[in-house]
Amino acid sequence: MALLRSRTASLNLFNRFLHQSFRVPNLNLSSVAADVHNQSTIESMKRDLLNLDINSQIGSCMPIASMRIGTFIHNIEVNPGQGGKLVRAAGTSAKILKEPKSRYCLIRLPSGAEKLIDTRCRATVGTVSNPSHGAKKLRKAGQSRWLGRRPVVRGVAMNPVDHPHGGGEGRSKSSGSYGQTSRTPWGKPCSKIIMLISGKYVTFNRYLS
Questions:
Q1: Which of 25, 102, 138, 167 is the most buried (most CB within 10 A)?
Q2: Smallest Cα–Cα separation from 155: which of 114, 183, 135, 116?
Q3: Quick check: 65 and 71 in contact, CB under 8 A?
Q4: Residue 154: which residues within 8 A CB-CB, separation 6 or more?
């Protein structure tokens, strides 16, 4: 009987020790689950940011020095901090031809021309949207007027009182004593002369004020 009492007392003492050692305070299970979910989301975002290639993210704006060769860019600055000046039309993009490690970077523009741009200038990764803008056809002449475009009339189709190219028989620009020189509506020559000066070709207007 004494042995049974001693065993019962020892068992109760052991159970009390277990309850005191592994006692868990009262917590809100929903808040714990939310904290665990937020921590897992933050960790996954950190992993994604570490493995993220910013040069492949379309719309990222950064200096050209931070980009790689072969990247398509648009909205390019000409001078650092000036703002985007080049490649801003719909559907256009430029390509980096030279690794931007030096002061200047070689970029091919949509026209095919290659230009050296300061690597401190910023640009946007990707191509400008709406590439089908140039293929859009206007349905009628009034739609062009809605866009603010006024009609363009050739000078040879006018009368002599309206334009120096007007008048004459047929399509002739030789009105009066002007000869064959193309002229502006105000009578000033608009053709250019290319001359070889000191071994260089120099272009300037024929009209000198």
A1: 167
A2: 183
A3: no
A4: 165
**Domain-located, residue 8:** no
Domain check: are 81 and 107 in the same one? yes
Which of 97, 125, 153 lies at the terminal end of a domain, its last residue? Answer: 125
Closest Cα to residue 100, out of 122, 85, 126, 82?
122
Tell me, what's the pLDDT at 180? 64
pLDDT per position as a tens digit, 103-113:
999 999 999 99
pTM for the model stands at: 0.55
If one counts the domains in the chain, the total is: 2
DSSP 79-90: STTS-EEES-ST
**How many angstroms separate the CA atoms of 24 and 151, rounded?**
84
Distances in Å between the alpha carbon of 36 and those of 25, 45, 201?
A: 18, 14, 74
Identify the DSSP state of 151: P
| pLDDT tens by residue, 28-49 | 545 545 565 677 877 777 676 6
Using only the alpha carbons of the chain, give its radius of gyration: 38
Biggest CA–CA distance in the chain, Å, is: 143
Over the stretch 50-73, which tens digit does the pLDDT of each residue have? 666 666 688 989 999 989 899 999
- Which residues contact residue 127 at a Cβ distance below 8 angstroms, ignoring those fewer than 6 apart? 72, 74, 91, 92, 93
Judge whether 207 and 189 are in contact, CB under 8 Å.
yes
